Amino acid sequence: MAKKHGTEHGSDSLAQVVSPARRKRGTAMRKWVGLLAGVALTSFATQRSAHAQYAGQISSIVMDAKTGAVLSQTDPDLRRYPASLTKLMTLYMAFSALRAGTISLDQAVPVSIHAATMEPSKLGLVPGTHLTVEQAMLALVTKSANDAACALGEFLGGGSEPQFAAMMTQQARALGMNNTTFRNASGLPDPDQLTTARDLALLARHIVTDFPEDYHYFSVAAFRFHGRMIPNHNPMLKAYVGADGMKTGYTQEAGRNLVTSAIRNDVRLVGVVMGASSNPQRTLVMADQLDRGFDAEGVAPVARPLVLARNTVAPHHHTGGRVIMLAAASAHHGRAPLEVAEAPAPRHGHHGRATPVVGGHHVRLIGAKVRPATATTTIKHGHKAHTSRNHT
């Protein structure tokens, strides 16, 4: 489903007429070039008097993606560390460059020494090698790879990640994200890289409304990279009915962050949760907030499954993958997870050159003979679990 960012060819005539599509593309090109050039003349003062709030105090907000109406909020304007939610702006910039025609999906992105030395989570890119723009975007959506984010940022920023970060901040201001400052493309810790839940909700809205042709990347369940299947970290794709994308984020300083977009009955909401103390808490708070948002919009409630599901992808086999179901209430109270019957791994679809899996990420729940998982239960994952040192 790769897009083609080419030019349109019209017939020769004495009075050449510029098509609306070409005019729009030319406007986007001028805007992108102006953004790239403008950072050389603009510097953003560091707001050192505004310190980020730390993990343990949750900020959240839910908006109607179409109207921008705020449906619920809790401390949405606290300055916080975005962690890997930063990558949403990196992706916004990539989508903008694709539309402007300054880059293409199959264009080679060079991997610098600087990019290769980024801390995990990462693909393990080697200096001097390349990956495509589309592979880089998919790596950000699924694995939240910091090396791919840095490489893509350098590529879009004319070879400089700091220049790209200035472009990101300038774009944030243009979108109305007045309390956001970016210092890198990945979200790795920087004391001056700050945002708010409200600003991130604005960004999520713009991603959905400004680039509907690219939003589908956020629902990709996995993609193949150099013979490996890279699965998506986002638990909401399987845990919440109607959720179809966005991003997780974590550093020790930021806590657990999450942006989710979900659609029911043609009503789309975007939600942000920042500073949760655990992944189950983050997921449950988001689900509760979205439920209340849909209720406020008059959307009939959907019975929420009592489980949070995570589908594993077998990297080299076509055998069935084990599905582990975590009871939401049990996980919230520290009880043992529950295990249910086997379910087949999703089929691997195709998505352009990177061959991501786009189907099968909705898990059919099996209500037969639920039993507690024991210490002897063997769980095979397609990727390594992240430790507290990882940044996702």
TrEMBL record:
Residues 1-22 are annotated as: Disordered. One of its GO terms (molecular function) is serine-type D-Ala-D-Ala carboxypeptidase activity. Keywords: Carboxypeptidase, Cell shape, Cell wall biogenesis/degradation, Hydrolase, Peptidoglycan synthesis, Protease, Signal. Residues 1-11 have a biased composition (Basic and acidic residues). It comes from the Bacteria. Residues 59-277 form the Peptidase S11 D-alanyl-D-alanine carboxypeptidase A N-terminal domain. Signal peptide: none annotated. Substrate binds at K247. GO terms for biological process: cell wall organization; peptidoglycan biosynthetic process; proteolysis; regulation of cell shape. The keyword Hydrolase applies. The active site is at S84 (acyl-ester intermediate), K87 (proton acceptor), S144. SUPFAM superfamilies: beta-lactamase/transpeptidase-like (SSF56601). Belongs to the peptidase S11 family. This is D-alanyl-D-alanine serine-type carboxypeptidase. The lineage of its organism: Bacteria, Pseudomonadati, Pseudomonadota, Alphaproteobacteria, Acetobacterales.
